[in-house]
């Protein structure tokens, strides 16, 4: 099952750690990442914010209990998503692989008339050849006709024609008339009917901008921190539209999308969403990603295969 990143991970303690262990872990990390050792390091400053927030939660029995309940909910949601994904893969495999049917073969009869004739012919073939030649001579004497062996050439006199190899058939992409869930495509930018929305307990967001494109897109937000990446949001964004994906948990993601007009499949560079606490205030990220090329942009796209989508 995918691992949930928690306050216990930030303090590097187990979930059943007693209070004195949590206290000791916090003091050790506080010394390790002391600001005096890493002056001007933004990464270390953000790490210390996470460590302090983790200590605030785990040192408070009530807050720790709420955090444990959140972990159980997230693990249950991820387990259901993983089971759903595994079931879909098993269903696709069973549909694509033919079922092998083994039939019991009847026991061979070594004394059948056909086998006896074959064995006898193999041992006495020269007698059969002599009888056949004698019969041919007798037939020729009765009919008065002795056909010539040269009447018909051994091989056709027609010139051989070079074999013309047919080109492989070209598979043309056809735009799907309905979504993978069997519903019509939405009339405007929206989540696909029948899809499941996961990782919804965060505050970060990603705005997908398609306003300058003339193509419609099927877009997935894919979670990368699990042993096997899986989509957490599935949406449709038509040409000249924009869609905001909200309430996303912290973690690493990418966008994978299909151009519904051409069939082209690509993915974005990884996206990192952080959530931090500063003076008991929860801060989060709002990212914006465009589905069209932007001059001097810092986001690259990469072709993917169908099974990666």
UniProtKB/TrEMBL annotation:
Give the UniProt entry's GO cellular component terms.
Answer: cytoplasm
Biological process terms in GO annotation: protein refolding
Q: Does the keyword Chloroplast apply?
A: no
Which Pfam families does the UniProt record give?
A: DnaJ
- J domain boundaries: 6-71
MF annotations from Gene Ontology: unfolded protein binding
Which SUPFAM superfamilies does the protein's record reference?
Chaperone J-domain
UniProt KW Membrane keyword:
yes
Q: Which CDD domains match?
A: DnaJ
What are the alphabetically sorted keywords of the record? Membrane, Transmembrane, Transmembrane helix
Listed transmembrane segments: 125-149
- The residues the entry assigns to the signal sequence are none
Question: Per its UniProt record, what PANTHER family does this chain match?
Answer: CHAPERONE DNAJ-DOMAIN SUPERFAMILY PROTEIN, DNAJ HOMOLOG 1, MITOCHONDRIAL-RELATED
Question: Could you tell me what this protein is called?
Answer: DnaJ domain-containing protein
Q: Upper taxonomic classification of the species?
A: Bacteria, Pseudomonadati, Pseudomonadota, Betaproteobacteria, Neisseriales
């Amino acid at each position: 099952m995918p691992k949930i990143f928690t306050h216990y991970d930030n303090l590097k303690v187990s979930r059943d750690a007693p209070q004195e262990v949590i206290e000791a872990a916090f003091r050790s990390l506080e010394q390790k990442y002391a600001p005096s050792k890493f002056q001007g390091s933004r990464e270390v400053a953000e790490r210390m914010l996470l460590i302090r927030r983790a200590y605030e939660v785990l040192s408070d029995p009530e807050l720790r209990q709420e955090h444990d309940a959140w972990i159980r909910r997230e693990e249950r949601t991820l387990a259901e998503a993983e089971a759903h994904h595994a079931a879909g893969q098993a269903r696709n495999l069973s549909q694509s692989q033919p079922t092998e049917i083994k039939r019991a073969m009847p026991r061979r009869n070594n004394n059948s008339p056909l086998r006896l004739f074959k064995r006898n012919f193999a041992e006495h073939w020269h007698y059969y050849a002599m009888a056949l030649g004698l019969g041919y001579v007798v037939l020729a004497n009765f009919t008065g006709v002795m056909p010539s062996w040269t009447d018909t050439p051994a091989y056709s006199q027609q010139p051989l024609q070079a074999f013309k190899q047919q080109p492989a058939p070209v598979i043309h992409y056809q735009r799907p008339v309905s979504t993978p869930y069997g519903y019509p495509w939405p009339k405007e930018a929206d989540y696909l009917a029948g899809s499941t929305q996961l990782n919804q307990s965060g505050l970060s967001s990603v705005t997908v901008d398609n306003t300058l494109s003339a193509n419609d897109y099927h877009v997935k937000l894919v979670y990368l921190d699990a042993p096997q990446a899986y989509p957490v949001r599935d949406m449709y964004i038509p040409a000249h539209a924009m869609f905001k994906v909200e309430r996303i948990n912290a973690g690493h993601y990418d966008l994978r999308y299909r151009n519904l007009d051409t069939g082209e499949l690509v993915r974005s560079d990884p996206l990192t969403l952080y959530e931090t606490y500063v003076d008991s205030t929860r801060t989060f990220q709002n990212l914006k990603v465009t589905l069209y090329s932007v001059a001097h942009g810092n986001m690259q796209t990469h072709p993917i295969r169908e099974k990666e989508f």
